[in-house]
Amino acid sequence: MTMNRAILWAAFGVLLAAAPLRAHHSFAAEFDVTKPIKLTGSLVKWEMINPHSWFHMDVKGPDGQVVRWMIEGGSPNQLIRLGVTKNTLQVGTEFVIEGYLARDGTNKAVGRNFILADGRRLFLGGSVPGGDGAPIVR
Fold first, then answer.
1. pTM (predicted TM-score)
2. Domain boundaries along the sequence of the chain
3. Which residue among 72, 98, 121, 134 is the one 20 to 30 A from 55 at the CA level?
4. Are 72 and 126 in contact (CB under 8 A)?
5. Is the separation of the CB atoms in 34 and 136 below 8 Å?
6. 19 falls in which pLDDT band (50, 70, 90)?
7. What distance in Å separates the CA atoms of residue 89 and residue 98, rounded to the nearest whole number?
């Protein structure tokens, strides 16, 4: 292997190693603990992907318009350990999400809990404060 080719492969390896670091974020970088939110809506789509799951829900606003929200949850493995599986919520299920708004002003939030119609409250884990058992600091 030539020296140039070795350098090229080394650079490629560094880029691959850095990609996962760039993709992951801290709670404080993306969400605001001083802006709690409670949304009621119905599940449209659920993506159980790493490093975070995403709940897509339709929420009817005060003006009657339906707005699509994306709610971040923990990793699939974390959710399953917490008792949240693909069988917990089916598309069309109405539920309440408690969480925190995104800093960028989009219809995105990180979920802390979701509450089902039967009253069950399930923790969503992930990057939300207290997700690791630590207290929420405001």
1. 0.71
2. 26-123
3. 134
4. yes
5. no
6. very low
7. 16
